[in-house]
Design goal:
about 20% strand; about 280 residues; 8-stranded parallel barrel; single chain; TIM Barrel; alpha/beta
């Protein structure tokens, strides 16, 4: 049976396994992993993963499904992810609302045109993914740096339209909202308010790199900055608390440093009521 998902979490990185094997800090309520990095993993790492999934809640956050891409949906990968999730008792799978492949992987997350045709195309692929996975999935609002050449609606309207057409859930990345708000000059709170509370089941927090005053790069390689912490607090005030993960993908500090940021998530969560849809989804 999948373990209950709630509270504050941390990405499950191989670099952190030795420290986590000694003791999982109380602040960490769950972990997240990219299934592409762990499917078919054997040996010591495979045994380590099994030991953790038997004792702790996990989320699968995909990297390469390319929901908005022109290539056929990778149904073989989805079948393997379903088997992996079933084997490890993982209930929630999330993916980026973007594309990252076109006859090969592009090694970046690229924006989908904000059009009605794109809504129907992406939603059909999400529905097919849900059928294969045999569970609802959550799509993540992605950071992007160049606006799509065609736009019939704004980013928030596009996300809402996909959620409705696909009948899926939302993985709300608070840092991505902040990054896009600076790069594309909009009020991040307007975007947060426009998201449907009943769809939000999961959230991300992360750091980014400031290339210029009007250009932020979503790196997941630095500490979360104060304006993003404030935006998380406002997000909980508007929508209630959902399980929230700290992402850190490189420049990874010692576990104790990461735990301080996980504890800060938990501290902000304690000031707000839990989001009822997130409770049901968990």
């Amino acid at each position: 049976m999948p373990r209950r998902l709630s509270g504050a979490g941390l990405g499950f990185r191989r670099e952190l396994i030795p420290a986590l094997k000694s003791r999982v800090p109380d602040a960490i309520d769950f972990f997240e992993l990219a299934p592409e990095n762990w499917i078919d993993m054997g040996g010591a790492y495979g045994r380590d993963l099994r030991a953790f999934t038997e004792r702790h809640a996990f989320v699968c956050h995909g990297l390469s499904l390319s929901l908005g891409g022109p290539s056929p949906l990778d149904e073989m990968l989805l079948a393997k992810i379903r088997q992996f999730m079933d084997a490890h008792g993982i209930a929630l799978y999330t993916e980026h609302l973007s594309y990252c492949s076109d006859d090969g992987h592009l090694y970046d997350l690229l924006p989908i045109p904000f059009t009605e045709a794109a809504v129907k195309y992406v939603a059909a692929r999400i529905r097919r993914a849900q059928d294969i996975l045999e569970r609802r999935i959550a799509i993540e609002n992605a950071s992007f740096y160049v606006a799509a050449p065609i736009a019939e609606m704004d980013e928030a309207g596009f996300v809402r339209a996909v959620l409705t057409e696909a009948d899926c859930d939302l993985h709300l990345d608070v840092n991505n909202v902040y990054v896009n708000s600076v790069n594309h000059r909009y009020d991040p709170l307007d975007f947060i308010r426009a998201m449907p509370s009943e769809r939000i089941v999961y959230m991300h927090m992360a750091g980014h790199y400031q290339e210029a005053p009007d250009l932020l790069v979503d790196t997941h390689g630095a500490d979360v900055i104060d304006p993003v912490w404030a935006l998380l607090d406002q997000t909980y005030r508007i929508h209630g608390v959902a399980p929230t993960l700290l992402e850190r993908d490189f420049n990874i500090p010692p576990l104790a440093d990461l735990v301080r940021e996980v504890e800060r998530i938990a501290h902000i969560q304690a000031r707000h009521p839990r989001h009822e849809h997130a409770v049901r989804a968990s």
